[in-house]
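new request in #modeling-help
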Amino acid sequence: MSKVMINENEVDIVIGALNPDLTSFMEEWRPVFSRFHLIIVKDPDLKEELKIPEGFNVHVYTKADIDKIAGSTSTSLLFSGYSCRYFGYLVSKRKFIVSIDDDCVPAKDDMGNLIDAVSQHVQNLETPATPFFFNTLYDPYRKGADFVRGYPFSLRSGVTCALSCGLWLNLADYDAPTQALKPTERNSRYVDAVLTVPVKAMMPVSGINIGFNRELVGPALLPALKLEQEGKVRWETVEDLWCGMCVKVVSDHMGIGVKTGLPYVWRNERGDAVASLKKEWEGVKLMEDIVPFFQSLRFSEAAVTAEECVIELAAAVKESLGPSNPVFERAAEAMVQWVKLWKVVKT
Amino acid sequence: MSKVMINENEVDIVIGALNPDLTSFMEEWRPVFSRFHLIIVKDPDLKEELKIPEGFNVHVYTKADIDKIAGSTSTSLLFSGYSCRYFGYLVSKRKFIVSIDDDCVPAKDDMGNLIDAVSQHVQNLETPATPFFFNTLYDPYRKGADFVRGYPFSLRSGVTCALSCGLWLNLADYDAPTQALKPTERNSRYVDAVLTVPVKAMMPVSGINIGFNRELVGPALLPALKLEQEGKVRWETVEDLWCGMCVKVVSDHMGIGVKTGLPYVWRNERGDAVASLKKEWEGVKLMEDIVPFFQSLRFSEAAVTAEECVIELAAAVKESLGPSNPVFERAAEAMVQWVKLWKVVKT
């Protein structure tokens, strides 16, 4: 990839704080984060005071801010647990957002160099995506790569990239059953590639390590699907999977792209997979209904912006999935509320 | 990936010989090829005697064999140049075929180990493909990998893999314009991944380094699209791109998968990109019509086998593309002839 000059003023790093002491997290990320503006959103369920080391350009949002902006209790409930980060997406005024879980630290590449995950996400977002034809040599815009023989010239300019999904070394983002079956398995394979996920192909987007173009698809990165027994470890949640399905179908409809691959982050242990097993089954079962729904979804031509797409999507969720499970009905309502909130904050 | 036990009796290695002296090619591949049965098909345009070193289990086919089996001159013309390898596909009686261009030698991985491209292709073909949902951690069946959180359990058994597309270190498979613009560019990036190309996503399949399940999709790997000025270097041909589009749409319809990524081969220089530029434009221009045609193609439910799909496909090519360019009309005819030939040889 040709090295992209990054304008720091276009980037917000959003961190959802589920743990009060961010000292070691922030210190590990200091070489990367110190150039950028940070938005830290404290999980409203967290009682203790946040500990944040000095020397960062940071804005902290707490339950008081959420209540003030989101208003009613039912709306502000959207922002608990892992979903607190979405409040950061809402209040950001910048073009790009990069969000990384607070149990992840910078990874190293195969040469032992610290990976600047923020710059890689921004590079992914600044260079075009190619969702309409697959390039077997991965990202054609990367230095040393190109389009392979047979790639239509008319598609080589690509389209705007909406979302960049990064990966995880050490503890991969498995569900509780998989993690419980393979308690000692750690991901050590560094795959040096970024690729565009083809149009119409669906994928499980993890919220652990992502970047996106907020101006283009911000309204589609939304907190909506909350499990009855949602917990404070990733494998007890599906909010990011739902959000990922939303942003992928919206991007497909808008003719823009989603990339996956680099950057990696180093993900540390958190939670007990075996203990989570009971809770997890609800989310696992929901995916069996969610995936076919999103795969068959079609938007009207009238839906042009991400907001408009989300409103159509919410109606479809309510109609098609709502009757089977109240969790979907609540998700549809949350999506409508989210777009309302987005419009209020943005105007 | 869990190491697959390979049954050598199920594999044919097919080499199209465009150059008479295969000595160094075969010697470089000896550690890999010597376990397997080889089918070498001599380009019927090649006048010189083939030079093949001793110590291989090899069956050589020449113009005399092609004429005997393919009969009429018009049919046997299908098998000239790079397309001579298809004759090997036709006469093989084995489950898997691996085919590698005669200007490629074994590559080394990042640790400096010789890559056994044949075993990797067979592993790709023996383990399931996952075309219906994208796994962000690449091949979930590989050792140390799995399905990521959110991947529907109902899709985790995957489907049969039909085609395995390998890649190229040193000289990547660019078209003549790209190669001419970047004369010194060499591919040195070893991406340690195999992934399934999602259903409905189209790709440029290169014939340089592939493996496939002959029993399942053999009839769809066919010689059909021949340029007026087709030459003896890859970037003067499109036969493999056409064949790749055919096998991808057929696999999609049959509910089986196509993988890309590992194994790499080391591709040596051949040909002069600048000299090829004039010829190449015809192929480049054709792709602009070919891609939308294949992207919108739908088979009838009556087409169940690869043979039946190819016959339907040939009719669609004749009808939709034929009027725009006689090269497509000839391709449609060649596809029908190929299936006839396939049936004769197989019964």
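bot summary: Chain B touches chain A through 56 residues (CB under 8 Å).
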